[in-house]
Design a protein that fits this description.
The strands form two sheets. The chain has a three-stranded parallel β-sheet, with helices on both faces. Strands 1-2 form a two-stranded parallel ribbon. It has 159 residues and is α/β, with parallel strands linked by helices. It is built from eight helices and five strands. Helices cover 50% and strands 13% of the residues. Helix 2 links the parallel strand 1 and strand 2. It has a domain of 110 residues: Rossmann fold (3-Layer(aba) Sandwich).
C-alpha cells in the first residue's frame, strides 16, 4: 500500500477569527481537496477531549517551530505516544531523536515529511510506551511542584 494511503492525519484545534487565520483555513481545505487528500485528512476543529484525541493517534506531530515548552508535546509523551517535533525550543529537551520520537529541521517541510515516513516505516523510536511516558515524567506538575517546594524551603531557611 502506498505511503500516502497509510497515513491518516487529524488536525485538532480552533481556527482564530482573524482574517489571516480564516484565509489560511480556507486555503488548507482547498489544498486538501486539490491534492485528493480528503479521505486521509480530517480537520477536526477544537476539542475538550484531548486525552481521547491523543490516545487515538499512533504518532503525535507538532509542526510549529517556535515552542518554548510545548504542553501538548509533554502531554502526548506522558500518554506514551511517540512524537515528531521541530528541533527548536523546548522540543529538543523533551524528544530524544530516535528514542521517544523524531526531530525535524525547523521550517523544513521536506524533512518533516521524511521523519513522518521514517516513523511509519518502522525507523521511528526504540522506546516502549512506558519508557516514553517515563521520559516526560520529570516535566509533570507534581515533580515541578516538589522542586519549587524544595527551593522555597531552602530559600526561606537561609538567613
Amino acid at each position: 500500500m502506498p505511503l500516502r494511503q497509510r497515513v491518516h492525519f487529524t488536525l485538532w484545534g480552533p481556527t482564530p477569527a482573524d482574517a489571516d487565520s480564516q484565509a489560511f483555513a480556507r486555503e488548507l481545505k482547498s489544498q486538501v481537496g486539490a491534492f485528493g487528500l480528503a479521505p486521509y485528512v480530517r480537520l477536526a476543529g477544537p476539542t475538550t477531549r484531548v486525552r481521547e484525541a491523543v490516545e487515538g493517534a499512533d504518532v503525535f506531530i507538532i509542526p510549529s517551530t517556535d515552542e518554548p515548552c510545548s504542553v501538548a508535546l509533554t502531554e502526548a509523551l506522558a500518554l506514551g505516544k511517540p512524537s515528531i517535533a521541530s528541533a527548536s525550543g523546548g522540543s529538543v529537551d523533551l524528544l530524544k531523536n530516535g528514542y521517544n520520537g523524531r526531530l525535524f529541521r525547523p521550517d523544513d517541510p521536506e524533512d518533516l515529511a521524511r521523519q513522518i515516513a521514517g516513523m511509519i516505516s518502522g525507523e521511528g523510536t526504540t522506546a516502549t510506551p512506558e519508557q516514553i511516558r517515563e521520559s516526560a515524567r520529570h516535566y509533570s506538575a507534581s515533580v515541578a511542584w516538589a522542586r519549587y517546594h524544595a527551593l522555597y524551603r531552602r530559600l526561606l531557611a537561609e538567613p
